[in-house]
Amino acid sequence: MADHSEPDIVLYDLACTKHVSFSPVVWRIRLMLNYKNIPYKTIFLEFPDIEPTLKELGLVPEKSASGSKYTVPAIQHVPTNTYIMDSLPIAQFLESIYPNPPVPLTSELGREIETKARGVLGKAIYSSVMPREIRILSPRSQEYFRRTREASLGHRLEDLLDEGKEEQVWSDVSAAMGAVGELIRTNKADGPFVLGARPSYTDFFIAGSLQSIRVVDEGVFQRMIGYPGYGEVYEACLSYMGKRD
């Protein structure tokens, strides 16, 4: 790592009114940067500013079934003036340039946890976090968030919290949430992380999601860590959450 005052990494993150990082996908990279002690600075972007900013930097949008889009995290590696977008390519780049301490990016157990967690966490986040997320956004981002999300939903964000819908979702995913939690604890005899004594990218996936939830709503966070495994990984990663703005 270069010994100079200029940061090695410029991290593009999502802005909120609490002035801290809250995007789960950005937190995966922030945890990795903090764990590896890589010097970086953050540039927070409002939702409507993500596309024009990243496009101006020369980044290529991600292609998906719903079309092309620009997303955070994105980074600039200052020493090489390299720009990268999306958490996994960024993680692969960081691991190649800054190999110590190592962060295993994949494992059979990690893949299973991430795949299953996306299913159950996705439903819980969709019902409980997304309709509350708008509360921590600036007016400009609120307008963008509501317009784009409600166009997809076909109804108001707040409707997700009405008429027992939220409780029904949690009831439906409860057993699967517990099963994922037990997978997380597979190697608990060797340490608090998914693979045992040292963190992997899967730990940052879990802890980043939980930290995101916590910034949005403490009550939903407490509900999440009521299941086995999740809170243990979160606590183990707390020492890598000191830099969050």
Second CATH tier, the architecture of the largest domain: Up-down Bundle
The total number of structural domains is 2
Strand order of the largest sheet: 2-1-5-6
CATH class of the largest domain: Mainly Alpha
Query: What is the helix tally?
Result: 9
Spatial gap, N to C terminus: 22 Å
Main beta sheet: 4 strands, mixed
- Rounded Rg: 18 Å
Shape descriptor reads: globular
Structural class: alpha+beta
**What is the name of the CATH topology of the largest domain?**
Glutathione S-transferase Yfyf (Class Pi), Chain A, domain 2
Instruction: Write down the overall mean pLDDT.
Output: 93
Beta strand count: 6
Subunit arrangement of the protein: single chain
Question: Unreliable runs, pLDDT <50, ≥5 residues?
Answer: none
* Percent strand: 5-15%
Quick recap:
With 245 residues, the protein is of the alpha+beta class. It has helices spanning 24-36, 50-56, 87-97, 108-133, 139-153, 165-184, 201-216, 218-224, 230-237; strands spanning 9-14, 40-45, 62-64, 67-69, 74-77, 82-85.
Walk me through the structure:
This is Thioredoxin-like fold. InterPro entries: Glutathione_S-Trfase_N, GST_UstS-like_C, Thioredoxin-like_sf. It comes from Penicillium roqueforti (strain FM164). The protein is built from nine helices and six strands, in the order βαβαββββααααααα. By secondary structure, the protein is α+β, with helices and mostly antiparallel strands. It has two domains: 89 residues, Glutaredoxin; 133 residues, Glutathione S-transferase Yfyf (Class Pi), Chain A, domain 2 (Up-down Bundle), CATH 1.20.1050. The strands form two sheets. A four-stranded mixed β-sheet has the order 2-1-5-6, sandwiched between helices. A hairpin with a 2-residue loop joins β3 and β4. The longest helix is centred in the middle third of the chain and has 26 residues.
